[in-house]
Amino acid sequence: MESASDRLDQEACYRAALTRDARFDGRFFGCVKTTGIYCRPVCPARTPNRENMRFVVTAAAAEEAGFRACLRCRPETAPDLGAWRGTSNTVSRALSLIEAGALDANSEGGGDVDALAGRLGVGERQLRRLFKQHLGAAPVSVAQTRRVLLAKALIQETDLSMAQVALGSGFGSVRRFNETFQALYGQAPSELRRRKERAAGAAVKLSLAYRPPYDWDAMFAALSARGDTVEGRVWSRALDPAVDGAAGVVTATPGKPGRLAVSVEASDLKALPGVLARVRRVFDLSADPEAIARDLSVDPGLRPLVAARPGLRLPGDWVDAGEDAPSDRLADEDLAVRAEAWRPWRAYGALYLRMAKSAGAERMEQDDDRRAA
Length: 373
What we know:
Elements: H1 10-19, E1 29-32, E2 37-39, E3 53-56, H2 59-64, E4 68-69, H3 89-99, H4 113-120, H5 124-135, H6 139-157, H7 162-168, H8 174-185, E5 204-209, H9 216-225, E6 229-231, E7 234-239, H10 241-244, E8 248-254, E9 259-266, H11 272-282, H12 289-296, H13 303-308, H14 336-339, H15 346-372
Parallel strand pairs: 2-4
Antiparallel strand pairs: 1-2, 1-3, 5-9, 6-7, 7-8, 8-9
Helix pairs in contact: 6-7
């Protein structure tokens, strides 16, 4: 069976890596056969010769093939994109559950792929086949890569102790955490850090990647309108032990270009993966604005709206029980026929129309006020 990595144009990927083209960051990763390292296409290191490189669509596919993450370009900081976006609803839902910790040892299902498949309404073999087809890696490999890359981010961006990092990234034990890093990097996880470890209790501060452009004004207006706590450009939410597995608070605000700055204070660090997954969903960080604009602009009515408001995102629910991918959910049945041509971005097309209708109503109201004056 052909996987997503098999369908990559290897020569085009190499040209993008040679020029360090930022448009492809997160869309594929380059595996260097001579060093056993995989990199983002924007890696500042010298690009190896073509015969020494192969390209895959996900970090999980690279790690399953035996490659380890580059310490210079840090694949864990790449935008969360991939060839599966918009191609398989089952894979999309499975990844959301894995990101929230469904295959971690301390999860409800005990890290069992069969239990995950059951939650999705498919067989285990079917789920493995879909993952291989769309991600080039098995569900267990995807889950381990998520744990490892989150752990690397915690090591390099926070002052958590190694035991806290192991807990906060979803590893079942410190021993397993140390063994995994030793096998992948040939060194203990503590050797990746040069700063002192800190005492427990303070907030965990991380930055989450997204692909620009991003219409922050529209996002914060939408979050505020639905009742979320928003002060200026700072969003916050109290954590509920019954929902999040811990008490505490999480805040988020735009950071450097392409990054969302997140701070999490949690009574139990085991809740961290799930909290970060929910923040990504609320701010729609996995959206691909380039693909959305390209596909929606085929509709003549949407083309000027997309051009006028690049980077619109869909605010997601903190707890998402929906079975459809957010990008394809459509509440307005009147748009159903027309919106079929917008797949897999139907919800974004409806969002652009709502924004245009709201702006039109506001302009009419302003005109009426001017005439009355």
